[in-house]
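Hi all, a correction to my earlier message: I attached the wrong file for Helix-turn-helix domain-containing protein. Here's the right sequence:
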Amino acid sequence: MNAKQPEPRQSRRITDVGTLKAFGHPLRLKIYSTLRVAGPSTASQLAGQVDEAVSLVSYHLRKLAEHGLIEEAETQSEDARERWWQAAQETLSFRHEDFKDTPEGAAAHTAVVRTLIAQREEQYETYLAQQEAWGAEWRKAADQSDFLARLNPAELTRLNAEIHALVKTYEAQGKATEAAGDTEGRENVAVHLASFPFRI
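and the right structure:
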């Protein structure tokens, strides 16, 4: 087995249209999300998880790799012919201000955000369809809330930063506790945040 791979770098901000378009393909988003959650995987494993042909998944893996969004991972089996992949960073971000200056960039940004929102909605719908199977503790813990605040842009920026920092604290705490051997009752938890101005 190969030497241990370095951990993916913590974060990356996408600022070029080519990479954003490569990332924003619906199947590539699913593949990338699956790698983030499941960890290092082969094309055949990913194909089973996203319900697509191995050849198609392999093609999209190569496209993601071309833009540095994923990278080869340490071999996880005795079969040296298998190619393993992992996300190249823990988190990706992309901001409207980096793409607003061209119609192509603005359209690509909007399209990717819409695809992400649709996939997040699908993820939540899956939970709703399966919530009885999760049991009472998880049903009580899960939340769907809506808040209304009167803020200016600086206050909204600060609010978002504070929420992100809080979630990161829990992420780090969960990783550390699990690394110490406390895995009892732990599951993947999705936390989705959308904050934006509106008028009526």
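Sorry for the mix-up. Residues 9-142 form a domain with the Arc Repressor Mutant, subunit A fold (CATH 1.10.10.10).
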